[in-house]
Q: What sequence folds into this?
């Protein structure tokens, strides 16, 4: 629940966090778009998708930022004053779900696509990951917009089932298909899965805060906004940059000419081949 | 502290300075993006990063510009009048820190990446420069938002420690790895370090103005905004263009074909080889 009142510093902190997220996501998108030529053609789809995910997220943060600014008005006549909720406006928190329902299936697709697996295996993974992720977010939404804790509980639990299934596919099924990947790719994929686990873990924690700390107040709410922002930056920007790294490593491993042209250092080439 | 009142000319001066910064940063970013193909593939990462830094800075100056415009309202009923602070609005000066925490680690990374050092040496430099620069900015922030001079003093001093460490790494450690660089690169790197020293020196001066001249008034504040803007333009745009120059010089030195294709003049080629 959005708090009724924020201090001037709390308002500024959320303002800065949301704008920081816009900057990180927008410029990661631009970087990845501009850098697509720096991987072999076969890996460009994954890099482009990473760019699009960051771009979509940046667009939604522009909306979240505007919604936040409109939801609060200053009480100050002179001096700094505090911020209270504007009549008839509310900070549209559920808006984040619109972002996630677009970006999360794309994030999972990027990861599968950049590995350039056999077509049959790739489709098998995608036909399970994409519906599961859409279900996970779709089931979370009714709980998020409900003011009723029982409803929030039920949908939170339901949403956890596809989440666990996604983890199963990523950590068990995907592992079986990593044998043929270069060593540096295996370790980056491993890192990327833990990044997903750690950042996606922030969302259920933020989701249950209203259940177990309904009167946590404005300070807890500011922390929650910070948690969402940082998790979104890591799960989109850092994740996208790691996809780019995998694409670079695989390009280097696939074609020695690429490594020479791109000036990849000999020690790195040896590490890739290991 | 933002002054309570600005004359019409003072308001216009800050307005113009902030807009000038947007123009310089936005179009340096566009230039560098468009020019990435004019260096060898191995140096494009550094040029792209320079473009991204200028882009991020331009985005933040748009926000700073908006914050400035909203923070002041005219007193004029007829005639020109003056500008006073709008109720409940304040010019969000701490916002600059959001920009720096993204751009400063990237600026240092560009410099290391464009030199195309051995991977081990590159990582060793980055693992020290990036955390130190994040620490420098993170420690400055609590002092900047505090109204208490003692707090401002303590955090200012703490922030100076990582700053000095960065200078040590750049001026002592980096120097050892410049031996294998072309002569023109050595002198440009040397120039770029002094540019960093000179422009970064503006920030602590602006930081301590409220400590030692608390009643310096609106005119001093306008000078401070000018100092920040010029320092940001030099530290991002000029710096980025120098990174581009290093990338061009190294491309020419690496491949004679590149020099011919790009029509680099013979005397310049000779100078590079020297």
A:
């Amino acid at each position: 629940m959005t708090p009724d009142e924020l201090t001037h510093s709390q308002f500024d902190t959320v303002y800065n966090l949301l704008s920081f997220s816009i900057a990180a996501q927008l410029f990661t998108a631009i970087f990845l778009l501009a850098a697509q030529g720096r991987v072999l053609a076969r890996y460009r789809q994954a890099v482009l998708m990473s760019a699009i995910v960051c771009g979509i997220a940046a667009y939604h943060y522009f909306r979240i930022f505007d919604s936040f600014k409109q939801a609060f008005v200053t009480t100050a006549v002179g001096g700094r004053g505090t911020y209270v909720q504007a009549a008839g406006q509310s900070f549209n928190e559920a808006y984040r779900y619109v972002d996630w329902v677009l970006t999360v299936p794309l994030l999972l697709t990027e990861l599968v696509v950049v590995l350039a697996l056999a077509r049959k295996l790739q489709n098998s993974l995608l036909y399970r990951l994409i519906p599961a992720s859409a279900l996970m977010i779709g089931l979370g939404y009714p709980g998020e917009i409900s003011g009723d804790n029982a409803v929030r509980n039920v949908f939170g639990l339901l949403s956890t089932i596809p989440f666990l299934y996604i983890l199963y596919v990523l950590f068990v099924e995907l592992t079986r298909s990593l044998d043929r990947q270069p060593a540096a790719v295996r370790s980056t994929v491993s890192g990327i899965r833990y990044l997903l686990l750690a950042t996606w873990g922030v969302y259920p924690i933020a989701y249950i805060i209203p259940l177990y700390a309904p009167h946590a107040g404005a300070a807890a709410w500011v922390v929650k906004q910070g948690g969402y922002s940082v998790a979104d930056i890591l799960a989109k920007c850092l994740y996208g940059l790691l996809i780019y790294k995998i694409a670079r490593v695989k390009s280097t491993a696939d074609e020695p000419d690429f490594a020479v042209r791109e000036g990849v250092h000999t020690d790195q080439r040896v590490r890739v081949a290991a």
In short: Confidence is low (pLDDT under 50) at residues 266-274 of chain A. Chain A has one domain: 5-259.
